[in-house]
Each structure stands twice: as structure tokens, then as C-alpha cells.
Please model this.
Amino acid sequence: MTPRRLVIGTAITLGLTGAALMGDAAWIQVKAAVAQVLLDRAFAETVAAGGMPVKPWGWADTWPVARIRVPRIDASAVALEGSSGQALAFGPGHVEETPVAGEPGTAVYAAHRDTHFAFLGQVRVGDRIDVTRADGLTFTYRVTGMEVVDFDKSGIDATAPGRNLVLATCWPLNALTHGPLRYVVHATMEPEPS
Model:
């Protein structure tokens, strides 16, 4: 093979590989956006049914359990039950063995940094976060802080006193590779008006 053919062959191979990787990345974004449309519909039906789970599509192994909304930045996402990789591919997941929003302890929701929780980098201390549960009740939280932690040393206590909320995603927010760090947003429920 001549050097010219080798260069052309390498360029074609690299071009096709790059196109495949860009297509894969675009597919993840499209899947995330389409899933949220289906999840919005299933969540509305779940609330209308008094909290009875409605699957977003027939073969789903999870269902919508909450809508998380940050009004200041007009961000919203429907969260699914469970935090498995399959659930997180379609939306934020309610982490197993943590309370639901509004209950005593710390409700934890996790999502990917490049799709459903991409907005976390815009969240600031003092921001309001509204969480509407599947039963239609909405609870308002205020952001008290953010931190970067090791995934296995987060210090998040599901049984902590009070009614707390944690939104977690991978860190750094704009990274392209996996890593051991997580970006954690902490919030505390506001008292109900008297």
C-alpha cells in the first residue's frame, strides 16, 4: 500500500469513526428529549389517577414519580422510580431507599450531567426548587449549598433530621469522560404557610 493510500484510508476511517461517535452523542440527546415528552404525559396521567403508576411506554421497567422544577432558570424534569442505568437513560431517578419528596429525611434524585441535570450548573444558593409528587402534592425547597464529593463519600444521610432534597450528577459538569466525583445540590424544605 502506498503512503498516499494509507493516509486516505486513515482519514476515511477517522472520519467515519468521528461521524459514528457524533451520531451516538446526538442519539442520547434525542432519546432524552423524546423520553421527557412521554414522561410528561405519563406523569400527568399518574397524578390524575391519584398516584397510581402509569408507565411511559409499554416495556418500561420504571414509571414517573415526581416533577422537579427550578423556576428561576425555567428548568424542569420528570423523575423516574429508581436510579438504575436504564432509568437514568430517560430521566432523573429517585434513589432507592431515600424518602420521597416532602417526607422526613433526605430525598435524593440523580441524573446525567449532559441531559436531564445539565441545568444544575446554573442553580444558585437561595433558588427555589419545586417537587411535585405522583400524588399531586408539591413541596418547595430552597437551595442551601452545593459541593463536589467522591461518589462513595458523599455524606448524604437519607435519615437526616428535617425534610431535605439532594440533586446529584457527575462532576465536572462539562466533562466527556466518567469519573469518581459528583456535584451535589442541597436544599431544605420551606415551612408551609400558616
